[in-house]
Every structure is written in C-alpha cells, then in structure tokens.
Amino acid sequence: MRSGTGWQAAGRALFGRRARLRWVHLVLGGALLMPFWLVGTVALGPLTGEQDMWSRSPAFLFGAYGVALPLAAVAGLFPTARRLSVAVARALCGIPGERLADGHARTRAGRVRTAGWCTLHMGVGALVSGTSLALPPFAVALIAVPLFPGVRNYLRIEPSVWSWVLLPLAGTALLLALAAVSAAAGALLARWAQVLLGPTPADRLAAAERRATELAERNRLARELHDSVGHALSAVALQAGAARRVLDSDRDSDVEFVREALAAIEETTRRTVGELDAVLGLLRQDVDGAERPGGPTLGTLDGLLSRSGVRVSLHTEGPLTAVPAPVSREAYRIVQEGLSNVLRHAGASPVTLWIAARDEELEIRMENPLPEQAPVVRPGGGRGLRGVAERATLLGGLAEAGPREGIWRLSARLPLEGRR
Q1: C-alpha to C-alpha distance for 310 and 305, rounded to whole angstroms
Q2: Contact criterion met (CB below 8 Å) for 310 and 280
Q3: Contact criterion met (CB below 8 Å) for 275 and 225
Q4: Are 370 and 406 contacting, i.e. CB atoms less than 8 angstroms apart?
Q5: pLDDT tens digit string along 51-109?
Q6: How far is CA 375 from CA 215, 341, 347, in A?
Q7: What is the mean pLDDT of residues 130-137?
Q8: Neighbours of 184 (CB within 10 A)
Q9: Rg (CA), the chain
Q10: What is the pLDDT of residues 160-188, one digit of tens each?
Q11: pTM above 0.70?
Q12: Separation between Cα atoms, residue 330 and residue 342, nearest integer Å
C-alpha cells in the first residue's frame, strides 16, 4: 500500500499538473531568451568566421547563450518586467499570491532582483527547452529500435539481444531523466521566485504605509458617523421621551413644551441628515485628489447647542472664527461627543462649556454634575471618549475625561498648528 502511494506521489511530481505548468513556464523562459540568443549569434559570427547558424559548433551556440544572458538581465531592469514576471509566475509556478510583490519595480533593489530573476528564468528555461526539443526524438528512436529496422539502420546499430533490451530501457530512462530535470528546475524557479520577485523592504514599508492610511481613513469615517449620528439619536431619544411624559400627564399647560421638543427633534434630524450626507460623500468620492467637504466647525456651534437637549452655559475666549478649519472641525466633534455623553449618562443635566482660542492652542473644557446613579456601561465600553482621544492625538494634542469632585469633566488641548 505504501509502495503504491510512493509511486503515485512520484508520478505526480514528474507528470502532475503542477509539473506540467512549471515545464510550460520553463519553455516560456526559453522562448523569451531566443531573441537575445539570436543577437548573440550575430555578434559572435564575424569573430568566429562561422556563417551557417545550423552547422555551427556547440561551443559557438553556448557562446551565444553566454552573450544572451546579460542582455536578459538588462531587460529585467525595466520597471514593468517585475509585474509581468509576477503574473506569469503566479499562474504557472503555483506560488501563493501574497508571497510575490505587486506592481512595477520602482526601487533599485527591486529592479536588481527582477534582473536576476529574468536571467535565471530565461537561462534555465533555455536549457530545459533545448533539451526538451532534442532529447525526446532520440529517446523514442532508441525505444523503437527493436520494432523498426529502418531506425536501427539509421542509428547504425547491429541487431542483438542486448540492443533489443538495453536500448529501449535507455530511451525510457532518458525520458524519465528529462521529466525529473524539468520538475527539479521548475521547483528551483518556484523557490527562487519568492526571493527575487517577493516584496523588498521598501515594498513592505510602502504596503504598511498604505494599510496604515486606509485604517486611519476608516477610523476617521467611523468617528464621524459615531459622533454625528450617535449625538442625534441621543438628543432625539431624550426630547421624545420628555414629550411623551408630558402627553401622558394630560397637562394642557405643557403643550408649548411638547411643541419645542418636536421642533428640536426636527432640527436635530435635519442637521444630522446633512452631516450624514457629507460623511457618505467621503465614501463615494473618486480617488482623484478631490478636496473633501468641510463639515461643521465651531462657527456652527450655536445651532448644535440650541437643539442638543441639554442646557449649556457657553463661555468663550478669543476669536473662534480664526481657528484653522481642521482644528475647528475636530473641536466641534469633541463638543458634540461630550454632549452625547451627557445625554447618555446624566440625562438633562446642565453643562458648562469653556472654549478658549489662544495663540498656540485651543482649549476645550466641559463639566456637568455626576448623576445620582452610576451610569450603565456597555460591554467593552463605548467608543465616543476613545474617539475624542484619537481626534486630539491626530492633531498632536491631548484629551482626558473622568470624574472630578462630584462633576464629570471632559477636557482637550488642541494645537492650532495641527498635524493634518
């Protein structure tokens, strides 16, 4: 049973689909070397005096082969050579795609490695191709000696028992040796492809930077959605709950309060729909370097405070309109998240908000009384305060939040010359 399994494994290694595809890859390398080999024959012809290409000596043919290899290396220095080589290697060598580099070779190390790969691929491929072209007819002729006298006469072999037995065995052995050499050469190229066509340190660094940029963009969009939609839902839930309690009490004197609550809900949802459209526009924008929409800033803070569902006492210092737009947008979101945090955990507790625009930084501080009962904490914690800290960090600032002597305080310091 084990012997049969071993023979099957050997057969797959020599004649299986992967071995056949790798042989095609080698033949393709030989075909790619052919133009350079012809250039080598033209260059060596006047030096050796041999004019008939088909009657030239093996030494001349291998000399032309030696001239062709440096030319193949030069061809591999072009940036597009790596992209084409990777596509062919992935399709025919059976190499996982993530082990090979994508795109053109734009660094010196990448081009040098690609040149080495082209030399190896074309050089080994030319040897295997030439052997595959010349050896099988001779091997088949040896196998056919006992059956065809014409073949025996052509090879000038005297008929004997030994020629009838040994020559077919020799022909079969040559075919098996060719298959073994082709499989070994294909495995060699597959192994070296991961080294020569794999990502260079510069490629890995560029890929890491792309992933970091994509992750930062995803986190930014998540913060925008969380802050705008989360605040709106918290405010709407508070206003709707207050209006429902008034209606349930059947007190006609509070109809005006219900009207104001419904107006606040209307204004909050209308403003949030606009903010949601702006955030979704970031997802739909083409990668053409188009400028992103601005979004709300400290200049529109009055609208947020008037319809937030929380009584806010605002104190400002310095011209808020002079704050740079990136810092102003992030400051607006920090205030919005602070109000959402109050709505979730302290209800309609009054809030005191200080915003000071100084020469080098913008300071934000929000305070509200702690609720009598400890707030319900969601499993894993919320994302709002984490988003506030991320916004401040991206601008090179700091943010912190926590209880302080019976009050909850959220503070942030943002440099006016942010990192964005």
Answers
A1: 8
A2: no
A3: no
A4: yes
A5: 555 556 778 888 889 999 999 999 989 888 888 988 898 888 888 777 888 778 878 88
A6: 31, 10, 10
A7: 91
A8: 15
A9: 38
A10: 777 788 888 999 999 999 999 999 999 99
A11: no
A12: 19
Domain boundaries, the chain: 2-199, 206-415
Q: Which residue is associated with the tokens 């970091």?
A: 212
Order across the sheet with 361-369: list the strands.
312-317, 351-357, 361-369, 407-415, 398-404
CA–CA separation, 113 vs 196, rounded Å?
A: 5
Per-residue pLDDT, 290 = 46
Adjacent-strand bridge partners of 403: 408
Tokens standing for 254?
A: 């509070």
CATH no. for 206-415:
3.30.565.10
